[in-house]
Amino acid sequence: MKKLSKLSLMCVLFFGFFLLSTQARWHNHTKHSKHNHPHRISYISQPPSTSPGPTASYSPPPEEPKNPYNSTPGVFDVRSYGAVGDGQTDDTQALKMAWDTACQSESPAKILVPNHFTFMIQSTIFTGPCLSGLVLQVDGTIVPPDGPESWPKNNSRRQWLVFYRINEMSLQGGGVIDGRGDKWWHLPCKPHMGINGTTLPGPCDSPVAIRFFMSSNLTVQGLTIKNSPQFHFRFDGCRNVHVESISISAPARSPNTDGIHIQNTNDVKIYNSVISNGDDCVSIGSGCYDVDIRNITCGPGHGISIGSLGNHNSRACVKNITVRDSIIRVSDNGVRIKTWQGGSGAVSGVTFSNIHMDNVRNPIMIDQFYCPTKKCINQTAAVYVSDILYLGIKGTYDVRNAPMHFACSDSLPCTNLTLSDVELLPAVGDMMSDPYCWNAYGQLQTLTIPPVSCLLEGTPRSVLSDEIDHC
Ligand SMILES: *[C@@H]1O[C@H](CO)[C@@H](O)[C@H](O)[C@H]1NC(C)=O
Ligand SMILES: *[C@@H]1O[C@H](CO)[C@@H](O)[C@H](O)[C@H]1NC(C)=O
Ligand SMILES: *[C@@H]1O[C@H](CO)[C@@H](O)[C@H](O)[C@H]1NC(C)=O
Ligand SMILES: *[C@@H]1O[C@H](CO)[C@@H](O)[C@H](O)[C@H]1NC(C)=O
Ligand SMILES: *[C@@H]1O[C@H](CO)[C@@H](O)[C@H](O)[C@H]1NC(C)=O
Ligand SMILES: *[C@@H]1O[C@H](CO)[C@@H](O)[C@H](O)[C@H]1NC(C)=O
Ligand SMILES: *[C@@H]1O[C@H](CO)[C@@H](O)[C@H](O)[C@H]1NC(C)=O
Ligand SMILES: *[C@@H]1O[C@H](CO)[C@@H](O)[C@H](O)[C@H]1NC(C)=O
To answer: Which residues does UniProt mark as catalytic (predicted)?
Structure first.
């Protein structure tokens, strides 16, 4: 095994040198770096014995370093593959080459996007499986082309950086991934960008900044991700995802800029992160289970959402979701479950615990009539919602809306909703709004503020039917 991996490392290095010698712009860059960044140079290709002696009256120019940036074995610096990092030059091929090389490494490999540089990367799919685990260490800044006009015509407009079929990868570092979303948000088709809050027709696709697809054992740690044209993160078909200590930000009025969207993904941990944006802080779509969210700060934005589920009469299953020890501030919603009429499947086993609300419009909400266009017809089928626990939800709400809103299906009521230690006060003044319930069954474990008297007791007959799909 040892021999093999040494051999492959040598191949990798050799391959690297070969590429470099064909890169004219590399040589220019090297000369500059000698003056500006001497600390980065390490003469991997130049044994110490060949150094010119200090007494020599004439020293031939030292051999040009072939690969000064890949000084540490297993570290693949994008500059070694020709990346310039001036924010203008297209560095896509360099990053892809670094990726492909690292991906072929049999021992754990790190791709380095170094500090103090800005790399412009086009829409790209980084594909696995790789021979070993990978770290993509982003210490510098990564940006896409600036807006729809500069986006190459043949590149996907729905995604920017895509990681596909990767097992064991860490996207980490102290750097910034800046989606430069501003020009996308102002496309006329975006909600509320027209005159008086209207939406105008026009091409509307906008790229998700970072998408993980069909991948597993992923960590995202430490980074700042901002101004995505659309969702900042999307995990789809993934398992074992750990997001830790990241910061996501976009303006409150940026449309559709969800912080982290997960779908068909399980074993998810989202911890110690701060998200402010123009849409959901975290959105949990169909097919997610075993999700644990802790110590996140959301807002401004639209809060934490499960859904929307059951769109176009689809079947949705979501279970075992916990959100705890978190803060939601200045948001349209706090913790929300939203389903379309006509869907099927179930949402069950959801716990919202120890969540502080600060001036939130709908702190607690279940909406089984979700319909952004307001043009949906009533249907009897519904995604069944049950076993939802609200524990220690405290803080203030915006009195324009009810602090608690449980709007459940006529045919398939929500059941076993539990409220415990809920205290929600108006953010301004002392006029309270009443909680709202429609076909919502459940119980109070403690008295709540405001008092809730609209929950129905027991279990309705309709949910005892064998025909209910519990997923
Ligand atoms: C190298 O640098 C010179 C001067 O800065 C410039 O004129 C030339 O175009 C550069 N060559 C490449 C390949 O970037
Ligand atoms: C897009 O077009 C350019 C130039 O025509 C080509 O080099 C590139 O490979 C194309 N990219 C894709 C993703 O098809
Ligand atoms: C926008 O709203 C204002 C005030 O409600 C109204 O006077 C104006 O005519 C509206 N503009 C359009 C284009 O609808
Ligand atoms: C993810 O990691 C676990 C534990 O290291 C491993 O058992 C599992 O096979 C990995 N997942 C995949 C899809 O390889
Ligand atoms: C919660 O997350 C913040 C970062 O948002 C971090 O500074 C803090 O230490 C975390 N608290 C705990 C108890 O881990
Ligand atoms: C629920 O998810 C957590 C992880 O968030 C996991 O530890 C636990 O075993 C799951 N519970 C069930 C009943 O599957
Ligand atoms: C749909 O059902 C709701 C709740 O029963 C009712 O308030 C609403 O008027 C209905 N809408 C239509 C279009 O029938
Ligand atoms: C009601 O939901 C709680 C979790 O919120 C669960 O522990 C309990 O078993 C459920 N009760 C029934 C009767 O299903």
So the answer is: 302
The pLDDT of 84-108, averaged and rounded, is 97
For the Cβ of 292 lying below 6 angstroms from any atom of ligand 6, the answer is: yes
C-alpha to C-alpha distances, 22 to 18, 103, 398, nearest whole angstrom: 7, 22, 62
63 part of a folded domain: no
Torsion sign over Cα 72, 73, 78, 84: positive
Ligand 5 centroid from CA 274, angstroms: 9
Whether 302 sits among the annotated catalytic residues: the reply is yes
Distance 83 CA to ligand 7 centre (A): 59
Q: Which of 272, 299, 332 is the last residue of a domain?
A: 272
The model's pLDDT over 362-401, given as tens digits with 9 standing for 90+, comes to 999 999 999 988 889 999 999 999 999 999 999 999 999 9
pLDDT for 245 equals: 98
Is pLDDT above 60 for 15? no
- 30 band by pLDDT with thresholds 50, 70 and 90: very low
Q: Domain limits at 193?
A: 70-272
What would the two tokens of residue 267 be?
Answer: 């074993």
pLDDT value of residue 194: 62
**Active-site annotation holder among 232, 261, 302, 405:** 302
Residue in the structure block whose two tokens are 């064991």: 168
334 found inside a domain:
yes
Residue from 154, 155, 156, 157 whose mutation best tests the ligand 2 pocket (most atoms within 8 A of CB):
154
CB 244 within 8 A of CB 217: no
Residue nearest to atom 10 of ligand 3 (CA): 196
**Residue 320, in any domain of the structure:** yes
* Residue of 240, 265, 269 to mutate, ligand 4, most atoms within 8 A of C-beta: 240
CATH number at residue 354: 2.160.20.10
| Centroid of chain to Cα 123 | 16
Residue 315 counted as domain residue: yes
362 forms bridges with which residues in the sheet?
333
Nearest Cα residue to atom 13 of ligand 2: 155
- Residue 196 C-alpha to ligand 3 middle, in angstroms? 6
- Summarised one tens digit per residue, pLDDT across range 292-330 is 999 999 999 999 999 999 999 999 999 999 999 999 999
Number of helices (H), then strands (E), belonging to the chain: the values are 4, 30
Shared domain for 239 and 327, answered yes or no, is no
